[in-house]
Amino acid sequence: MMKNTLKVVLLTSMLPFAASAEQELTPWYVGGGLGVNNYEPNCDQKTMKVCGEDDPYAWDVFGGYLFNDYFGVELGYRDLGRAEWTDYSNKRNDVGARGMTLGLAAFLPISEKWSFSAEAGAMNYLISNKKNYNTEYYSDSGIAPYVGVGFGYNFTQNLKLQAKYRRYENLDDDKYNTLDMESNYWGLELSYRFGVDKPAPVVAPVVAAAPIDSDNDGVTDDLDKCPDTPSTHKVDAQGCTIYEDAPISSRLEGLLFDNDSAVLRPESKPRMDKAAKYLKDNPHTSVVIEGHASHVGNADYNMQLSEKRAQAVVDALVNDYGIDATRLKAVGFGEDRPIIEGTSAEANKQNRRIEAVVSGAEKRPVLK
User: Closest by alpha carbon to 144, among 185, 98, 187?
Assistant: First the structure.
């Protein structure tokens, strides 16, 4: 018994030095235990006349692997101690069982420190006796199932102490058919799980930078989809200028024609481009295209010519620039509305013209 106890003490004293430093908890653990064992029958058989001095002390060592925090497998070696008795032939008998074990273990946390465990497995046992008393010879091996329960207490994340009970069945001497036994074991086991349970790293709080409003429109840059809005404009939630339709009435001038021609002169194209862009940017406007003629020639002819000139501009805006025809109207005034009186070269040039009278509403920014 003293030798067995010494084995357990040495084993458990060395366990804390087995884990490598500064690592996470691993699924591996080792341990050892010491307890008492009661064979059945022990002085209970009819052949047992007198109980002798028992040596019921049992011990075990084991290693385990955890599949998760609740379930694992254990491999170990167990010595269940010995029992002695005197039979009715006055022969003194003794017997003991030991061997390798393999089993499954389940763990259920009850609180932060306490847990419940259950296990089941098999022992590859060897039973034998010392034969010091000219007794019956017991020697056999076999597989004995066992089950067990326990309560554990965690001193640390690594070190656990458990109170255990196990029941072994069919520890039999089938070879000589002389012995049928079961066993009850109670004991304490100390186990060590390798690794270090590191605390979660302390993360310094991130202080968010104050939001920036580069164009001073009241909407910060992270939300501003129109970053260059003038500071005098009212803006929406996305930082873009708010527009309104403002009533207007204005005239567009500068579209010129040659004498007796309804074809726009090439130098009028920039003015046409500008007029078309204005109409596209202000869709709520309508335009009356006014055609005019100089005093050269017949008045009735000039009236028809001015109408053709106005229609040529309307056709160009519709066909070349895609302006909706319903927004445009062509009107001819002939020579009734001259800019310059007379028939000088400059008067004729200025009077052969188109004027666009715009009415309706144009798109204007809302100011603060």
Answer: 98
Average pLDDT over the chain, rounded to whole? 80
Which secondary-structure segment (H or E) carries 274?
helix 269-281
Given a contact cutoff of 8 angstroms between Cβ atoms, the answer to whether 228 and 216 are in contact is no
Beta partners for residue 147, in sequence order? 120, 167
pTM of the model: 0.46
Tell me: the pLDDT tens digits for 299-358? 888 898 889 888 989 998 899 999 999 989 999 988 888 888 888 888 888 887 888 888
Tens digit of pLDDT for each residue in 258-276?
777 788 888 888 888 988 8
What Å distances lie between residue 166 and 58, 286, 289, CA to CA?
A: 12, 100, 108
3-state DSSP assignment of residue 184: strand
Locus of tokens 């059945």: 40
12 burial (CB, 10 Å; 0-12 / 13-18 / 19+) is: buried
Distance CA 253, CA 162 (A): 103
Query: Which helix H or strand E contains 309, and what residues bound it?
Result: helix 299-321
Q: Are 171 and 144 in contact (CB under 8 A)?
A: yes
Separation of CA 272 from chain center? 58
